[in-house]
């Protein structure tokens, strides 16, 4: 007779615990609040920058959407638990809305959609792969999800050329800003010891 160890909903077959700890909630909340302030600040600067781009290259203003997409990727890379992307992106959107934003309730919808775009990608890798290409795909997921929402709500009936340009530019922005920069930020934070209680920090520093 041989014994087997059954996996539980909070533990993977490799032994990784997916249940949230108190420190996970606290750090995810800190990430979300800080991100929400950045979201709000970028919202103040967005229109003056986007207007001339849209006038000259309609649709390519999507390249400016990246700063609203990073919270979910950053939260997922640090926490590495189911729901982290949705939690950080949605709470960041709530913080931004509470400070004051011209998009009102749609800010919360965007946060949910962007977080879901990231969550689907990291879930596809079973919350087990956190390499650079996964971060880039997660950023692309956030960008693609937001593109669909914006085209349905903000640009209904847009021409195909506009829709393609907006989707491509937003996705690229998601890959670079939300994906690459978040991945680099996590590694930089890990080297300072700030993430020592997380696998993301121990992975970079070589500690177990």
Automatic annotation (TrEMBL):
Q: Which domain of life is it from?
A: Bacteria
Q: Which residues form the signal peptide?
A: none
Q: Which UniProt keywords apply?
A: Membrane, Transmembrane, Transmembrane helix
Record bears the keyword Transmembrane: yes
Kindly list the residue ranges recorded as spanning the membrane.
21-42, 62-79, 86-105, 111-128, 135-155, 161-186
Supply the name of the protein: ABC transporter permease
Its taxonomic placement starts with: Bacteria, Bacillati, Actinomycetota, Actinomycetes, Micrococcales
């Amino acid at each position: 007779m041989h014994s087997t160890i059954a996996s539980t909903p909070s533990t993977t077959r490799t032994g990784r615990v997916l249940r949230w700890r108190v420190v996970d909630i606290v750090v995810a909340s800190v990430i979300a609040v800080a991100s929400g302030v950045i979201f709000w600040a970028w919202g103040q600067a967005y229109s003056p920058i986007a207007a001339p781009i849209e006038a000259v290259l309609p649709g390519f203003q999507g390249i400016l959407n990246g700063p609203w997409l990073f919270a979910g990727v950053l939260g997922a890379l640090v926490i590495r638990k189911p729901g982290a992307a949705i939690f950080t992106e949605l709470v960041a959107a709530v913080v931004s809305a509470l400070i004051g934003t011209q998009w009102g309730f749609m800010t919360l919808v965007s946060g949910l959609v962007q977080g879901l775009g990231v969550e689907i990608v990291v879930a596809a890798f079973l919350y087990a792969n956190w390499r650079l290409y996964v971060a880039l795909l997660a950023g692309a997921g956030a960008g693609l999800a937001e593109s669909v929402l914006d085209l349905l709500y903000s640009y209904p009936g847009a021409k195909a050329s506009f829709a393609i340009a907006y989707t491509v530019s937003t996705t690229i922005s998601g890959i670079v800003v939300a994906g690459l920069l978040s991945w680099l930020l996590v590694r930089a934070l890990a080297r300072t010891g700030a993430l020592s209680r997380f696998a993301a920090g121990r992975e970079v520093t070589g500690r177990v």
